What we know:
Blueprint: H1 14-30, E1 59-63, H2 78-87, E2 92-94, E3 101-103, E4 111-112, E5 118-122, H3 137-149, H4 155-159, E6 162-169, E7 172-177, H5 184-187, E8 219-224, E9 228-233, E10 246-251, H6 255-263, E11 269-271, H7 276-284, H8 286-289, E12 291-306, H9 316-325, H10 328-336, E13 340-342, H11 357-362, H12 367-376, E14 385-392, H13 396-412, E15 417-424, H14 426-433, E16 440-445, H15 457-460, E17 464-466, E18 469-472, H16 474-478, H17 485-496, H18 500-517, E19 520-533, E20 536-537, E21 553-554
Parallel strand pairs: 1-10, 1-11, 14-15, 14-16
Antiparallel strand pairs: 2-3, 4-5, 5-7, 6-7, 8-9, 9-10, 11-19, 12-16, 12-19, 13-19, 17-18, 20-21
Helix pairs in contact: 9-12, 10-13, 17-18
Amino acid sequence: MNFSVLWFGNQKHPWAGRQWRRVVQFVGLFGLCFAIALGCAGNNQPAAEVTAADESSRIAIGTTLTARTLDPADAYETFPGILLYNLGDRLYTYEPGTTNLVPQLATAMPTVSADGLTYTIPLRDDVTLHDDTPFNAEVMAFSIQRFMENGGRPAYLLADKIASAEATAEHELTLTLKAPFAAFPALLSFSGVTPVSPQSYEIGSGSFSPDSFVGTGPYKLASFTSDSIKLDVNESYWGEAPANDGIDIQIFTSPANLYNTFTTGGLDIAYQTLDPDQIAALERDANSGGWQVIEAGTNVINYMALNQKIAPLDNVTVRQAIAAMIDRPLINERVFQGQAEPLYSLIPASFDIAKPVFKEAYGDGNFAKAKTLLGEAGFSETQPLNVEIWYPSASTTRSIVANTLKESIEAGLPGLVTVTVQNTEGATLWENVGKGIYPIILSNWYPDYYDPDTFIQPFMSCETGSNQICEAGPAQATGSFYYSPKANELVTKQQAEQDPVARQMVITEIQQLMVEDVPYIPLWQNKDYVFAQDGVEGVAIEPTQQFLLWQIERG
């Protein structure tokens, strides 16, 4: 992640690959925002074979998101994750409408050894895969081993944690960890940790099947192209049958095309991504247009990373002063038309453990506090602070955010602070962020699984560091270069702590350390929107950000 907006491209640094997916998705979700006017209806592409038909029980969905691959061992973007969640099952999942983790292909929550290293998981004995292969512990162990060994983008999620995966009985899986990890059951709900058929897949570095999927879920993949995807009902599904006869997905080239096709009745559902003007229009015209607006929070966080390798950001008082300058409600109103939420911790507000520590410590646009702190750091009108904020050139949204910050800060602290806004091509930005070139970067983060750890460890930990600078590890890859032995200790402690209450206390301490040291400044949290025609029911975004297609039906 980085100052301004980090648009991650393929990177060779071991930590870069892990973070690439989390930030690059912003391009798919917001890269075209503000760039296409609401009235831009030119070159509107037809919905091809995907149309909303009253007599059909198939559901037509439109999106601008794309799917690079459907191989669970390599898929690491938003849209493939949604598709895999509906095409496959996992050992554990979330009870619809809640954040309650429950067994799915497992029959019970795991039995954990006293040292926290061994997880024994009983499995269902009534499941078959799409090719009629019986599901058992051997299939699950094969799928996990393949996920770790084939070297796909998300491989590290399990490879860093699991020492071995074994079928200790026909329907009993035993996973041995390298170190205790309290969030492990939540990690096992990741969309890619789904069983696949050993008859259709193989274990081998780089061996992927991007255009097919053979698993256990409520849908089978009927077709997969660059502009459309069809899911048919799995008639042999072991669980509850879908409420529809299948899903037809049309991939649009622009938000304008998606907007126009939905508003003219060519789609049942429009989901990601429309620009703020289009969203506002759909909300305003819902009653007259005959559609529903479904709004949900998301777990996507947006933040500013402060590079402690570059003076004066090596001075914690300066970082604290910058934190006091940030006016989140202003960003939400001017940039997002209220379609976001101010963020005051790197842990999203959807978690009970999240504390608004930055609001309590610094407020919003608290220029009096910022001026006091800058004075303590030796800055004045005769010796002003120069702040440089970077973002990828293709991100219009980040450009507006950066310039809004510039105008607000320079108006609130005239003569004391000068803000320079800079941009460069996204791949170049990410290639250099781990080298410590950029002072401040605007970035975002997509979580891998629903647990506070995924908002803590990637930011606050460091594998190798000295003199308060991270030399290798997560904090170096994010561009903050934050190194704190205390932070490392607390991150490890919360990962190992099995007692939920004791773990929450550690996480609270980590958030307090974050607000004191200010390696990052949380900015805003996105909202998610889905639009459905009247009469289409069961459309909802889960608290874990999944979209359950099998619940959707015509009323």
